[in-house]
Amino acid sequence: MLLWLLGTLLSLVLISVATIHFLFPWVLLDIRYILTAKKVVQDIKDRVKKRELIIDTFEATAKRCADQTFIVFQDQKFTYKFVDEQANRVARVCLDLGLKKRDTVAIMIQNEPAFLWTFFGLQKIGIKVALINYHLRGQALSHSIHGCQSRALIVGQGDEILAAVEEIKQDLSELQILIQSDNVKGSGFKSFNKLMQEASPDQIDASIRDDLHLKDISSFVFTSGTTGFPKPATVSLLRTISSIGAFSLFNFSEKDILYETLPLYHASALNLGVFNVINKGAVIVLRSKFSATAFWEECRKHDVTVIHYIGELCRYLVAKPKQETDGKHCVRVAIGNGLRQDIWEEFQQRFKIPQIIEFYAATESPVAFQNIFNKVGSCGRSSPLLRKLTPVTFVEFDNDTQSAKRDKNGRCIPVSSGDTGLLLAPVSGSLPFEGYYNKPKDTEKKIIKDVLKEGDVFYNSGDLFYIDKDYFLYFKDRTGDTYRWKGENVSTSEISEAVNNLDFVHDTNVYGVNVPGCEGKAGMAAIHLKEGASVSPQHIHQISQHCSKQLPAYARPRFLRIQRQMSLTSTFKQQKVDLINEGFNPGKIDEELYYYDTKQNEFKPLDETSYEGISAGKIQL
Questions:
Q1: What sections of the sequence does the record tag as coiled-coil (predicted)?
Q2: DSSP assignment of 601-615
Q3: Residue 8 confidence (pLDDT) above 80
């Protein structure tokens, strides 16, 4: 009788599982995802409960793994103990200079070990760190440093960085400027290296951080927007804790070696890459900048097990000539974002990468998605079940108005699987939107209200996603006045303002256009000249020189379009939709076009021949 009951019960269970799998096949995927993510979520909760800050994690790891290698850089190895001692020196120097807890210090340092011990040294004494993009120049650089009310600027090695700071020296007269070099003669700046040599490496008393709150700011990460200059997104101490367990999704351990070529001033490389390495006491192989030629060679040389990518990086690797050694390495996981469907399978198969974890996240976004299923092209899942845990919504988007569509009752219209929608995330205590520092208008622009019911508040990601029948998500496009190029977010307003400073330009309308074979969108500047002016080779040359001087390399427009008159909407706003649809095709555009010749650093006329060359990938942008 008992065996009969057990058999019947087992049959019912199997029938139920089979029925669920038949009617709702995606549920089993959800269960697997939830079980995988559960340990990550629990780890974060435990750290929050103990109030274990990221610097506490680093110090504990440095004590536990003192003599183990933490950083490999240019064939040099730096132990956890050495980096921790250097961080203690940084902290003492800053305290001696009168800097104190909750002050802000800007750091402008390339990818090198000094970036990390400077960051951790400032975290030891509760100082907020403004992570400055070292490609910035002129007003954009000055604006970023002052935008966080920085009291000091620590500048890394490199003549180009020092020259950029020298250019805006007058704007920084109220700041202490410290150079990580022994030779600062004639600059009027202080040598941070000499001060470090005189400082003690002994451990900083952790009690100095006792009254820090999890809502206090850990760092500022700059993101482009519609203001014309980079704006500082705030990264709280709580948010750094939330990012520390992400690599647990693929069982990252102390035996792993991460290859990091992405810039540390981005949250992805620092919060995702570095923080997960120190969490486990693993090794990070740091490179000053990405090199497609050296990439796999260095992975083999250092027995790398995990690589961190952006889509453009993968495209460069796929574009290299095939080698017999392409699949010979120890890499078991590639994690990153922006890997597009058209090269995904080739990248994974050619280089024999067992698992690709594509994710979606943004510096200021309260939500993130991860694809742990090796699903080609997807950046994660958002099923009805998963939305109970992370209650995001995807709504219809109006390309003409560049805003969410509303029904007759004024509510947004959710999309179903098989459709594309704008990602919105509810703002709550468990899903906070931390906003931008001293930028209430910019913060407010990212908020959308009365979405599903009166009084609700959502974060507007500005990103469009396609949802397939199994609720896998695919990133489709970025809306508004920001586009992504070369792994960087580019502000259209910043480019417009730079070009508009030329005395023969009346106005400039900037937008991103799709280019075959390229990740993101290439910048195009539609320029309307002042009345009576006509374009000349001299004008084009001036635009080229001006952009090179005023804009970082990734933000310089790749195309110019000389318009007879500006394209405006009925409300006299710059009209971009039709221009974006026309792209850079001279067959569709009856106006002068130019493309940026990267070899000559000059704009050249764009005709059918050069158009075909760009489209075929023979002319690089």
A1: none
A2: TEEEE--HHHHHHHH
A3: no
Q: Alpha-carbon distance 393 to 414, whole Å?
A: 7
Residue 177 has pLDDT above 70, yes or no: yes
301 three-class SS: helix
560 burial (CB, 10 Å; 0-12 / 13-18 / 19+) is buried
- Number of C-beta neighbours around residue 49 at 10 A: 8
| Amino acid of residue 297 | E
Considering the segment(s) 482-615 as one domain, its CATH architecture is 2-Layer Sandwich (3.30)
What is the mean predicted confidence (pLDDT) over 248-273?
95
Average pLDDT score over residue span 215-240: 83
The beta strands (E) that lie in 267-364 are given as 283-286, 306-310, 333-337, 355-360
Residues 6+ away with beta carbon under 8 Å from 186: none
Q: How many CB atoms lie within 10 A of CB 535?
A: 15
In angstroms, what is the C-alpha Rg of the chain?
26
Half-sphere exposure of 301 (CA within 13 A, CB side): 11
606: pLDDT strictly greater than 50:
yes
**Angle ∠(401,406,410) on CA atoms, nearest 5:** 130
The Cα 222–Cα 146 span in angstroms is 12
Per-residue pLDDT at 568 exceeds 80: no
Q: Do residues 362 and 461 touch, judged by C-beta distance below 8 A?
A: yes
For the chain, give the mean pLDDT.
89
Check residue 461 and report its DSSP letter.
E
Is the pLDDT confidence value at 5 over 60?
Answer: no
Query: Distance between CA atoms of 466 and 340, rounded to whole angstroms?
Result: 13
From 455, 450, 463, 465, select the one nearest 406 (Cα to Cα).
450
Give the per-residue pLDDT at 620: 87
Q: Report the pLDDT value the prediction gives residue 595, as an integer from 0 to 100.
A: 95
pLDDT (0 to 100) of residue 570: 40
pLDDT at 108: 97
At residue 467, the pLDDT reads 96
**Residue 140, burial from CB neighbour count under 10 angstroms (0-12, 13-18, 19+):** buried
CATH of 24-243, one of 3.40.50.1220, 3.30.70.1350, 3.40.50.12780, 3.20.20.70: 3.40.50.12780
Q: Is the dihedral of CA 517, 521, 522, 526 positive or negative?
A: positive
CATH topology of domain 382-478: Luciferase; domain 3 (2.30.38)
pLDDT digit string (tens) for 35-47? Answer: 988 888 888 899 9
Tell me the C-alpha distance between 394 and 1, whole Å: 52
Neighbouring-strand partners of residue 478: 463
Query: Where residue 48 falls among pLDDT bands split at 50, 70, 90?
Result: very high
The answer to whether 464 and 421 are in contact (CB under 8 A) is: yes
Q: Can you tell me which residue has the tokens 């132990």? A: 79
Residue 432's nearest CA partner among 449, 457, 455, 404 is 457
Structure tokens at 198: 């005189």
What pLDDT shows up at residue 227? 45
Q: Are the C-beta atoms of residues 334 and 355 closer than 8 Å to each other? A: yes
- Rounded CA gap, 475 and 370, in Å? 12
Domain boundaries, the chain: 24-243, 382-478, 482-615
Q: What are the two backbone dihedrals, phi and then psi, of residue 226, each rounded to the nearest 5 degrees?
A: -100, 5
Instruction: Write 565-570 long-range contacts (CB < 8 A, 24+).
Output: 565/528, 566/506, 566/507, 566/509, 566/526, 566/528, 567/509, 567/526
